[in-house]
């Protein structure tokens, strides 16, 4: 009993338009065909009238079943205006996300910040290495002098990164 209730609730949540089973045209066709028949015999008319009533009841049953299935569709509880508002909000979100993707693609395709950051780092490394070799500091630097040199290089590197960042921000506007 408990499992069937859970199964019904789960199947109710998974209802989609594609899953709807609404077959009413064949019954409507049979009803129209039986009404169009012209019987001269009263018993045949009565029998046909009874068959037509059965078909009308079957049509009513299928329409009720279709209504019940349609009520299970997600979002059916919202009015047309609410659905349109929700659709508009989704379209706006889609446009914003497309814009973000376009910006990110531009950044990645240009990869200006990455190239600029790599250039700054490589320039700083080579510049520092050349300074150390030119001045012969690689053999006679004390730990304090080495820290001071690294601090100057770090400050220089931070300045260049800030400059590259400012250039990038200006370029993105």
UniProtKB/TrEMBL annotation:
Localization terms from the record: Nucleus
Keywords: Activator, Coiled coil, Nucleus, Transcription, Transcription regulation
Cellular component annotations (GO), alphabetically ordered: mediator complex
Listed Pfam families: Med9
Cross-referenced InterPro entries: Med7/Med21-like, Med9, MED9_metazoa
SUPFAM superfamilies hit by this protein: Mediator hinge subcomplex-like
Family per record: Belongs to the Mediator complex subunit 9 family.
Name of the protein: Mediator of RNA polymerase II transcription subunit 9
Source species taxonomy: Eukaryota, Metazoa, Ecdysozoa, Arthropoda, Hexapoda
